[in-house]
Amino acid sequence: MRGNPGRVTIYDVAERAGVSISTVSLVVNAPHRVSPATRERIVAAATELGYRMTPGRRIGATRIAVAAPFTAHPSYLRRLSGMLLRARSAAADIIPYDIDSAASAASPLLETLPVRTDAAGLVLMGVPLGGAARRASRTARVPVVHVDVVPTGRTAVDGPVVLVDDRRGGDLIGTHLAGLGHRSFGFVHDVQVSPAYVSSGMLRAEGLAQHGHVRAYPAASGSDVSEAVRRAAADGCTAIVAGHDQLAASVLGTLRAEPHLRSLSVVGYDDGDLAQALDLTTVRQPLEETGRVALELALGIVSTGAARGGVTRLEPELVVRDSTRPA
Questions:
Q1: Which of 11, 209, 216, 221 has its CA 20 to 30 A from that of 250?
Q2: Alpha-carbon distance 115 to 140, whole Å?
Q3: Is 286 in contact with 314 (CB distance < 8 Å)?
């Protein structure tokens, strides 16, 4: 007999199906963790009672807010995917917030804390907190874990930081290109409006500069990239290093359109499906791993209440493909 939908609860479904309420919750939020037979029994019980099996907040789950420029930089979506995979086996719910990229802001510090009152912690990626937001996090006792934010005198950071070693990434590229005889590098990167923070690109350029002369060419669009490539070639650069694989794809597009530039070597950064499809030499970042580590740090602080700091550095890896060749 169908029950009254307005009165049926998860407890009624659990009793009808002969399981615990946590098992019913798993069927809603993580069905892969429940056997097919049990899933069918729970769904049948819910259908008979008129209970809607819609995802919601998991019972006993810790809510972690995650703020990053997701739509501006696909690499942050990969970091988020690492967090989501970890959250499937942890008692955690992820609340994503899309924010503006620090590179496009005249004042890159985030002054408004993007946390709902029911979030126990915040993972902030790519954008530092300003003074007002840091004070707000302390007042609200919301622990903050930073990802891809370099703590310096210009950028104060409370709590732990998870970074991929970008200076090491630039060093790996420089070592590879120098071994092929390249000594002058064009670094094509996103426009950074404010000098008030240290970006990943700055650190990569520092690592690259250990092996030759680096000329920087900011590019905000595809036409800017084409112009940057032409200028780099005219300036005597024999290799183009892009700030990320999407920029490298635009560089390769310019080389295809202008045959006299095809002798240039091209290196990207991040490594994913795009780099593989383009046969692009690039640096592989453990993006998903940074997300997993950040979530575990946030959950650890929330569960113990102990303040933590320090920097966790993960190592990048050079992936050599066909887009680099001897000078």
A1: 209
A2: 10
A3: yes
DSSP 8-state class, residue 124? E
Residue with token string 């530092």: 128
Which of 114-123, 175-184, 193-202 is the most confident on average?
175-184
Question: Who's near 140: CB < 8 A, 6+ residues apart?
Answer: 113, 115
Length of the chain equals 327
Task: List the structure tokens of 289.
Answer: 């791993």
Predicted pLDDT at 278: 97
Using an 8 Å Cβ cutoff, are 115 and 140 in contact?
yes
pLDDT mean across residues, the chain: 87
Place of tokens 């992936």: 319
User: Per DSSP, what are the bridge partners of residue 266?
Assistant: 240
Rounded distance, CA 196 to CA 100, Å? Answer: 16
What gap in Å lies between CA 78 and CA 83, rounded to an integer?
A: 9
Nearest to 239 by CA among 207, 276, 281: 281
Bridge partners of 283? 318
Question: Looking at residue 118, what DSSP letter applies?
Answer: T
Q: Which residues sit opposite 296 in a β-bridge?
A: none
Structure token pair of residue 257: 């359109």
Q: Which amino acid is at 170?
A: G
pLDDT, tens digit (0-9, with 9 covering 90-100), for 72-102:
888 999 999 999 999 988 878 898 988 888 7
Contact 41, 18 (CB under 8 A): yes
Write b or e for each residue in 72-92: b if 16 or more Cβ atoms lie within 10 A of its Cβ, otherwise e.
Answer: bbebbebbbebbbebbeebeb
Cα–Cα distance measured from residue 16 to residue 69, given in angstroms and rounded to the nearest whole number: 45
Contact criterion met (CB below 8 Å) for 309 and 149: no
List alpha helices for the chain, DSSP H: 10-17, 21-29, 36-49, 74-88, 131-140, 166-179, 200-208, 222-234, 245-257, 273-277, 287-304
Model confidence pLDDT, tens digit, residues 12-64? 889 999 998 888 877 776 666 788 888 888 888 888 888 766 555 555 578 89
